[in-house]
Design a protein that fits this description.
heterodimer; A: about 325 residues; Rossmann fold; seven-stranded mixed β-sheet; five-stranded mixed β-sheet; 14 strands; about 20% strand; globular; B: about 290 residues; 10 helices; about 10% strand
Chain lengths: ~325, ~290
C-alpha cells in the first residue's frame, strides 16, 4: 500500500488522476524563487515558453536573459554570473543543455564551482513526435560522472517545483531533468522532498509478508512502477517502490536498508540503462550488497517519433515490462 | 590622453622585461607549457596589473575590484608571473608550476589561486564568462570593470562568436575585450589554419567599438583602455597586435614556439637576450 506518511496523491490509482506536465513545476518554482531571492536569475536559449521559464521572464524581466539558440554561451555566461553572487538557472531541452554544452558545464560550472542550476526539459523518450533528436536519454549519465555535480529527476509537477526550490536554496551546481508530457500526480503539496533522501512510496509487505523485490525508480515512470506493484499483489508478489529522485548523491542508506529486506532489485528510469539511476544503484550494490538486478530503461538504442505512451510501451518501459522484470529478478533470486 | 608619464612607462617596461625573464625561468623549471603567447603578452599584463586594474593583491576577493578574465588559459605563465610580482603570492611559488600539489595548475583554476577570476583552458568560453561577470556588475549597480584577454586562435570556436553577439546585443559597456592578435596557433598561422580577417569589420558588424594598438606600446595600450572606458553604448575590443615570443629573437614570430617550453640551452640564450635587452646593453644582470 501507499506510504501514508508521505501524504501522496490519494487519487493516484483512480482513472481521473490529475495530470500535469512536470515542466509546469519548474516554471512555478522559478517564480517562487524569484520572489524570495533577488539573486536568482534565469537564462533561456530560445525555449522560454516550452521550458516554462516564461513566468519568471514576465515577472522579473531585468533578471531574465534571452541568450538565443546558443547553449554553450548560456552555460558560460551563467558560470560568470554564478561566481558573482547570482543564482543562475539555465533552461533548455536536455538534449541541448547539458548535451551540446557538456564541456562548458564540466569546466566553467562544475570544476569552477559556480553556483549554476541546469534545467533539462523534454527529458526522456516521452517527448514523443519530435523524435530521437529531441529525446534526451543520456543526460543523467553525462551529468552524473562530473565531480561536484548533483543530479535530480523528480517524478511529477509538484516534485519538480520542490526540486527547483531546493536547487535554488542549496550551494553548488545542480542538474534537474524533467519531461514534457502531462504525467500523473504522484505526490501532493504535503509530501516531503529532501534532496538526497529517497522515499518509500509503496510497500506491499505490511501485512507480515516479507517483501520480494525493490523497484527503485525516478521520474514519471514511477507511476508505472506503482501500478505494476499494485497489480503484482494479485500474483502474491510483494514489492517496495522507492522514489530515488536524487541520483547523485544517491541515498545509499535508504537503498541498502530496502535491499537488505528484498535481496532483489529492479531499477526503472526513462533513460539509457548505461550510466543512469540503474547504474548508480548497481555501483552501490556491487560494492556493498550484491543482489540480482534487472534494469528497465532504454537498452542502448535511440527512440523515434510516436505518441509518448506508444514509445514507452515499444521501448520496454510500460507496466507490463516492469512486471516482467520483477518476475525475472525474482526467479534469479530464488535460484 | 594617457595618464602615464615617462618615468612610469620606463618602470613598466622594465617590469615587463623582468616578467619575461621569469617566464623563461618558470617554463624551464616546469618542463612543459607555452612560450610564445606569454612572452608576447608581457607588456599588456604588466600594464594591466601595474597601472590599469583597480585591485588589491592583499584582498583578492575585494568585491569592488576590476576583474581580469583570462580566456586563453594556456598563456597563464604570464598571468602567474605578473600576479606574483604584483604580490598575490610569493615569487618562489612560481617554481611549482605544473607540478603535483601546486596552486599553479597547467591551466588556471579559480578556486586554487588568488587573483584567478575563472577557470580556463578549453578555448572560446572566457568571453562569455566575462559577460556573466559584467551582467552581475550591472545588476548590482557596481562600477568595477571587466577585462577579458582572449587569443586570436580561439576565435575559431563557435562559443566565442555567440559571446560576441550577446555583448553587442546587451551593450555591455563595462566590458573590454583584449585580443592577443599574434597570428599564430598550434597548427600554424591563423590565416592558414582558419582565416579571421577582416577581424575589425567582423566586430563592428556585431555592434562593438573596435580599437587597434601595438601590443608592445604600453602608452598606446593604456590610451586605448581609457578610450574604452569613455564609450557608453557598446562593448570595446582592443585588437592588440603582438609578436609571439617577443624579446627572444629565435622565438619571435615562430608558431613552433606556441606550445613548448625552452630547454636548458635555449633558456640560457633567451635569458641572455632579455638581460642584455637584445644586446643593447653590455653587462648582463642576474
Amino acid at each position: 500500500m501507499l506510504n501514508e506518511q508521505l501524504k501522496l496523491n490519494q487519487k493516484i490509482f483512480e482513472k481521473d488522476v490529475e495530470m500535469k506536465p512536470a515542466r509546469d513545476g519548474y516554471g512555478e518554482g522559478l517564480v517562487i524563487l524569484g520572489e524570495e531571492n533577488q539573486s536568482v536569475v534565469v537564462l533561456s536559449a530560445d525555449l522560454t515558453e516550452s521550458t516554462r521559464a516564461e513566468g519568471f521572464a514576465k515577472k522579473f524581466p531585468e533578471r531574465f536573459f534571452e541568450i538565443g539558440v546558443a547553449e554553450q554561451n548560456m552555460a558560460t555566461i551563467a558560470a560568470g554570473l554564478g561566481i558573482s553572487g547570482k543564482i543562475p538557472f539555465i533552461s533548455s531541452y536536455a538534449v541541448f543543455s547539458p548535451g551540446r554544452n557538456y564541456e562548458q558545464i564540466r569546466t566553467t560550472i562544475a570544476y569552477n564551482d559556480s553556483n549554476v542550476k541546469i534545467a533539462g526539459a523534454h527529458a526522456g523518450i516521452s517527448v514523443g513526435p519530435d523524435g530521437a533528436t529531441h529525446q534526451a536519454t543520456e543526460d543523467m549519465a553525462i551529468m552524473r560522472v562530473i565531480p561536484n555535480m548533483r543530479v535530480i529527476c523528480p517524478c511529477d509537477s509538484i516534485e519538480t517545483r520542490k526540486a527547483t526550490l531546493a536547487a535554488g536554496n542549496m550551494w553548488g551546481p545542480v542538474y534537474i531533468r524533467f519531461g514534457r508530457e502531462k504525467s500523473p500526480m504522484i505526490t501532493s503539496n504535503e509530501t516531503p522532498f529532501i534532496p538526497g533522501r529517497a522515499e518509500i512510496l509503496w510497500n506491499s509487505s505490511v501485512n507480515g509478508k516479507k517483501p520480494d523485490v525493490a523497484i527503485i525508480g525516478c521520474g514519471m515512470l514511477l507511476y508505472n512502477a506503482l501500478i505494476a506493484a499494485k497489480e503484482l499483489e494479485n500474483e502474491k508478489i510483494s514489492v517496495i517502490v522507492v522514489n530515488s529522485h536524487t541520483i547523485k548523491p544517491l541515498d545509499e542508506k535508504t537503498i541498502l536498508a530496502v535491499v537488505d529486506k528484498t535481496k532483489a532489485v529492479v531499477t526503472v528510469e526513462e533513460h539509457q540503462i548505461a550510466g543512469g539511476l540503474g547504474s548508480a544503484v548497481a555501483e552501490l550494490l556491487a560494492q556493498r550488497f550484491p543482489v540480482p538486478m534487472e534494469f528497465v530503461g532504454m537498452h542502448d538504442t535511440f527512440g523515434e517519433s510516436g505518441k509518448p505512451s506508444e514509445l514507452i510501451e515499444k521501448y520496454g518501459m510500460g507496466v507490463k515490462d516492469i512486471k516482467e522484470a520483477v518476475r525475472r529478478v525474482l526467479k534469479r533470486k530464488n535460484n | 590622453m594617457s595618464d602615464l608619464h615617462e618615468e612610469k612607462i620606463k618602470y613598466l617596461e622594465g617590469m615587463a622585461n623582468r616578467i619575461r625573464e621569469r617566464i623563461i625561468e618558470t617554463l624551464l623549471e616546469a618542463g612543459s607549457g607555452h612560450s610564445a603567447g606569454p612572452l608576447g603578452m608581457a607588456d599588456i599584463f604588466t600594464a594591466l596589473y601595474f597601472h590599469i586594474l583597480n585591485h588589491n593583491p592583499k584582498k583578492p576577493n575585494w568585491p569592488d575590484r576590476d576583474r581580469l578574465v583570462l580566456s586563453c588559459g594556456h598563456i597563464c605563465p604570464v598571468q602567474y608571473v605578473t600576479l606574483a610580482y604584483a604580490g598575490y603570492f610569493p615569487l618562489e611559488e612560481l617554481k611549482t608550476l605544473r607540478k603535483l600539489n601546486s596552486r599553479l595548475q597547467g591551466h588556471p583554476h579559480r578556486t586554487a589561486l588568488p587573483g584567478v577570476e575563472t577557470t580556463s583552458g578549453p578555448l572560446g568560453s572566457g568571453l562569455s564568462q566575462a559577460i556573466g561577470l559584467a551582467l552581475a556588475a550591472r545588476l548590482d549597480g557596481k562600477k568595477y570593470r571587466i577585462y577579458c584577454v582572449a587569443s586570436d586562435g580561439e576565435h575559431d570556436e563557435g562559443n566565442f562568436w555567440e559571446a560576441v553577439m550577446f555583448a553587442g546585443k546587451y551593450k555591455l559597456n563595462n566590458l573590454t575585450l583584449i585580443v592577443d592578435r599574434n597570428n599564430i596557433q598550434i597548427d600554424g598561422y591563423t590565416e592558414q589554419v582558419m582565416p579571421l580577417e577582416p577581424l575589425r569589420e567582423k566586430y563592428e558588424a556585431f555592434r562593438w567599438n573596435v580599437l587597434g594598438v601595438d601590443g608592445h606600446n604600453i602608452h598606446d595600450f593604456v590610451d586605448a583602455v581609457n578610450e574604452a572606458k569613455a564609450i557608453y553604448e557598446k562593448p570595446t575590443v582592443i585588437i592588440a597586435h603582438t609578436i609571439p615570443g617577443k624579446g627572444v629573437s629565435f622565438m619571435e614570430g615562430e608558431y613552433t614556439w606556441h606550445g613548448k617550453p625552452p630547454n636548458k640551452e635555449e633558456a640560457k640564450k633567451a635569458l641572455h637576450e632579455l638581460r642584455t635587452l637584445g644586446r643593447h646593453i653590455e653587462s648582463e644582470h642576474e
